[in-house]
Amino acid sequence: MRVVPLLFVSAALVLSSRVQAEETLPKPEPATAAILDPSRDATPAAWPTAVKANEGAPNVVLVLLDDAGFGAASTFGGPAKTPELDRLAARGLKYNAFHVSALCSPTRAALLSGRTDHQIGFGSVADGATGYPGYNAHWPKSAASLARVLRDNGYSTAAFGKWHNTPYDEISPVGPFDRWPTGLGFEYFYGFLAGYDSQFAPRLYRNTTPVDQTRTEKDGYHLTTDLVEDAVKWLHAHEAVAPQKPFFLYFAPGATHWPHQVQKDWIRKYRGKFDQGWDKLREETFARQKALGVIPANAALTPRPAELPAWDSLNDDQKKLFARQMEVYAAFMEQTDFEIGRLLKSIEKDGFADNTLVLYIAGDNGGSGEGGVDGRDVINADGTVPPAAARLQRADEFGEEIFDNHYAAAWAWASSTPFQWTKQVASHLGGTRDPLIVSWPAKIKTHGELRTQFQHVTDIAPTIYELAGITPPDKVDGFAQTPLEGKSFAASFFDAAAPSSHKQQVFETSGNRAIYQGGWWAGARHAAPWSARRGELAIGQNPWELYNLDQDFSQARDLAKDRPDKLRELTALFDSEARRTQIYPLLPARKEPPSPADGRTVFDYRPGADHIPQRIGPKFNRRAHSIVADVTLPEAPEGVIFADGGDYGGFSLYVKDGKLVYLATAWGNVTGKIVSREKLSRGAARIGVEFIPDATNPPPVLTSFEPRVVYAGKVVLSVDGAEAAQGRIENLQFSYNETLDVGLDSGAPVSPDYASPFPFNGQIDKVRVELR
């Protein structure tokens, strides 16, 4: 049975009038209409019929920004100019009580499934997975994705940008691929599989195949621009072949997650715009929010947390440095707005805007405080941060590929105005509330209005299902489906007074936890993301707080002491919901996820073995190791023989000017370069590398950015068994999202001596790695 959209008849009335049949996907093939006859003329031909979407089903564009707080974009009073988002809001609706998880992977899992994050294994980011049902990052078969349901109901589906919901041990050239975007219902994918990537030298996939980048920062390349261009190409291909089918386009660019990287022309527009500091910026943003009407007139501005410094307490160098960080971030957001505007304008120009439902979520969590109190940009080779004065000397270069580019945590707090706290802090609205803009020109006729209903990211999928006339499936591929947690809020599109469809919601991220029910919010903060590593503090050191959101928009008045009865009721509800949705245990011990490299000490690589994520390869920097490459050298040899990592961490074994070179990097610094004394001779050769670590090296630390662990040691190069050179590497580190390559260096180049991919011009038979 199908439920037609709310616009025409209430789904509830249909369901109350008859017994609902079990809805399964894929849909059964139609039975043969007649018994086949030996005579061709006696049996009419009939082609199998394809599944068709319901008449009038809208196209859907779902946009998700990254690490953007409630008060970042100008559309909601923020300092970053977002004229394209302003334009969309002017012809649509603004939601000021829309909630997400306080972290990226969890929000995306909830968004694309309609279930809570922990229910489908994403209580943390994919790279922080651990072996508990709520945290294992293994999207279950019992939770079919929004894309899968739409695809099996006649939609074309495509995803562009960041995908952070595949287990890291499954991101490999051999899969398995059933938890990649194309295994979860998207017919096409172009983007990266990680929490973040470089905007100038990203590691991209098209479907399940790595993509070699031929353009660089110097050529004007930028990832968000590239994603828009590819999305427009996909739309044009769709129109050329199947314009009668509705499309679902999921656009999640990875902006404005760190590293904040954007061209200088955008940054210049913000010079001097943040010299007033974060305290004053919050006051300015708060005033604009009230003037725009996106927050109530009686809302209060919450105070600065004690963990963050007052702007006036900083010295002049710190103020100049931190202001520059925010200039880069605001520029990054404006450039992102411009590019997404290009995508939406293309849809409009091509004549599809009228029946295209756009759902634009301006942040998957609050502003990110993960850069710490001082932010990150220039980092020493040992992982320590130089004084502000030294960093300030390179401030004109901020925004470039070589820097970590993360603003100070107080800017994250300011971009989450008027709320308390930031990303990861699920106990407060600063981590969990972000703007939502909805536009659908064919149906939504009340433009520019505000909607204040409490809604949650899990509500997006059921809303789309209702408007497309789709009944959520009971079974998919034979697997019984976990019921949707979200509720459609389509009624609010047409009625500002429609009640909230979402009455209750549990939140938890990194031990910070909360429960909402009927206007009341109880929350308990575990720790600030910049001040404590996971597991260092015991749960319960900070007390539960209580807020009445119906009367206190910004969580400015804690009522825990005034209403202990209500607080007890809500904390008991949190406990029952935590048990039901797999939130427990809180703060499960972090352990590296399994890897295909586990238990192996010998690795053989041949030509074609490239774009292998470092996290599933040998852990070079944790133990002594050797690399032996059997090659045939041409008359003038040149190029990369073997590389692992990039300019922010890794090593490369290459030939330059006829000499063998081994170079290592850490946090944008060269930490050692060993060059052979003689040039290489033409013909077959066995190239060797030995890394002998210092005996004092500590074991790896997996809990946080700090403290930095230094891996130092001696490197010996050899050719045909004879020593060619030796030297010292002061630190051997690896980039989070770079790759291992044979015969080239994909992504950002490890060495400043060459531009990627710098392919080897000889022949490589085999490269053997042995861990001691």
From TrEMBL:
Pfam families per UniProt: Sulfatase
Name listed for the protein in its UniProt record: Sulfatase-like hydrolase/transferase
Location of the Sulfatase N-terminal domain: 58-470
CDD domains xrefs: PAS_like
PANTHER family for the chain: ARYLSULFATASE FAMILY MEMBER (PTHR42693), BLL2667 PROTEIN (PTHR42693:SF43)
SUPFAM superfamilies noted in UniProt: Alkaline phosphatase-like
TM helices/strands, residue ranges: none
Keyword set, alphabetical order: Hydrolase, Signal, Transferase
InterPro entries recorded: Alkaline_phosphatase_core_sf, Sulfatase, Sulfatase_N
Family stated for the protein in its record: Belongs to the sulfatase family.
Signal peptide limits: 1-21
UniProt GO molecular function: hydrolase activity; transferase activity
